[in-house]
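Contributing: when you submit paired examples, paste them exactly as shown. First protein:
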Amino acid sequence: MDAAGTKRKLRVTFTSEIEGDGIAEEEQTPKAKPKSGSKRKGKIWEYIALATVPLVLVLGNSMLVPILPTMQRELGISKFQSSLVITLFSVAAAIIIPLAGYMSDRFSRKAVMIPSLIVYGGAGILAGFGAVWHSYTVLIIARAIQGIGAAGTAPIAMALVGDLYKDGKESQALGLIEASNGSGKVISPILGSLLALLVWYAAFFAFPAFCLLSLLAVMFLIKEPKRTAEPKPIKQYLQSIRKIFAKHGRWLISSFFSGSLALFILFGVLFFLSDILEKPPYSIDGVWKGFVLAIPLFGMVTTAYITGSVIRKNGVLMRWLMNIGLALMVVSLALAIWFNKNIYVFIGLLTLSSIGTGLLLPCLNTMITGAVDKSERGMITSLYSSLRFFGVAFGPPLFGWLMGISHQTVFITVSSLSLIALGLVFFLVKPGKQVQ
């Protein structure tokens, strides 16, 4: 071979090795082709492993909503006490999420996610035994421990996606995680109702099995990239938060309030609906109740998926959709003040409100995620996730308390809060033509 030919072969080999193949172009054979297929299969399994994390998070709360009235009767507890099964879980998670986010930045994502899933599933078993023993104290303590475990699951999985993928792959993976989250919300009431056909506390024991599958998937199917940058000291970490809020505080706080309120209303409405469906004149129980509870959730999930697909980075479209979504919530919840007796009209109005939530949340998520650099994104998204958990936490007990006054009081309150959120978003949340 002449000198020119030798140089050419060396150059091709070097280029090929940089691109990750290690095989010169002239020397490639059909046997090398399965590598790309193998990589694609690996990515698919990686996506599936990531998607299991938000799914188990959703199942941990939503699967219990249909059995709350039964739990109330079996344990001899009040409506408020049964709502605390959801509330304490969410409050514990909300408090710990910022700490879990910081720990995952300082050490690694999997170093937080794996112990969190173990705690999450183990506490589920304890909660199940609390139900078997008819011990409300054991049950409620176990649910608080579960919340601590939950803090290190889905919010950290979102950060891990940013570490693993770039550009289109990142959007694809985030879309899958959001779809998994939404699908979990739809199937949870049905699954919880099906499990209750065996015994009312079956959901507590079934849940750890889902956790185990997710744990194995995260451990063996996800390879986390090595860290190169030094972690921020806690003082610098807190200073960064202060600077971000000094610059973006007005619209960030308005967005945080609106996102938290949307989930407060969504879970409060599910609690309200679950309670009234079991009573005369409806007397709808079991799996059928699960299907009815899934109707508003399906409206929210479908709308959120479509919204997330079309908004991309279009700030003008986001502003329109956020205001339309909140306006739908205001109108539908206000009409529910008078039209909450006819079950068909009532469910239609709640579904319309959930569609408004589906228009709002993807826009808020995109804006908040794009508000800061990637090095600071974990802090802001953790705070946002924390406040969303507080919204979920206080929905059931506050709705239960308001229901004790009157059904009209429930919807006067939430429609007024939605109107406040609409005013804040309309006047203070004004994204540019192109969101970062």
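Second protein:
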Amino acid sequence: MKTPHSSKPPRPNPQQAGEAEVGATERIAKRMARAGLCSRREAEAWILAGRVVVNGKKLDTPAHVVGPGDRIEVDGAPLPANERTRLWLLNKRSGHVTTNRDPEGRTTIFEKLPADLPRVLSIGRLDINTEGLLLLTNDGGLARALELPSTGWLRRYRVRAHGSVTQEQLDKLKDGIAVDGVLYGSIEAELERQQGSNVWLTFAMREGKNREVKNVLGALNLDVNRLIRISYGPFQLGDLANGEVREVRGRTLRDQLGAKLIAVSGANFDTPETPAAQKVAQPKGRKAPVLGRDGKPRKKIDPLSRLDTKPRQAEKPSGKGAGKKAVKSAGGRNSSQNAAKPARAGKPGGKPNRGPNADRRR
């Protein structure tokens, strides 16, 4: 006779529990990343260096699971509370590297971000010469979820390449293509126009492997010389200026992610924004005011006023001896000298003298 199975419920997987429920047990590196302190990889290095203490015990391995009631300290200071999940859109400039530190000393995207932004992570990467839309977030769980191919978000690019191609050749990319032993999935490609020796294309894909666009077009004898990402899932580049950063409103972000992605990523929309975060956040379509040295907003100057070539009116001096002082106009000439010049003598009747040959020229 078989013994009945125990009625004790099975022990849940800590990693799955951490992803399924916000605030449940999760890896210590993941908790540190959610708090906006560092990335998961950096957290693991900090743990191995002995900088992290949980409930009074120094950790020596990143394979440690923590719960909501655990007391975590990093370098002797309590771990900050989890921040509210936020997302920014960045129009990346060409020539900037998508990394925190570059061993070659090249300019990174994080060096050019506004100083009032919190610590952020990039969702995916763009090559140094690729420009366009790049998503930034303060939530490591959201960044990881949106990078996965299983998320299935479509990424669109505008491509300029040297060479020529037909729409029939591009249509074959819908079935996928293998280049140098790497299999690339279905790609939607459309020929926009031929411009001299270059062609403009529109690419759409869901995988986003390393150098995918350049490798695929290279197989079609096309040399990419400009690559611009114009959308990532539901988020569009739109009118975002080159190098500009704009935050997505919390309600919009929650609607675009949906319940499934929020659950998988563990995004946190319940924590209220801190006063500093509220100050950084700007409504869509508005920019933060530019402050002067005195800390007050600068007055807006009409750019067309700088093209005005009319001399400015000089202010009348006041006080004793003011009439004797020469007042300079905007052109730099002495206005008192101009006023002292006598008018040219004219003929009777008040008409000016136009010279002896004036009547002949009529």
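If you have annotations for the second protein, write them as plain sentences, like these:
The two ends are 133 Å apart (CA to CA).
The CA atoms of residues 2 and 8 lie 17 Å apart.
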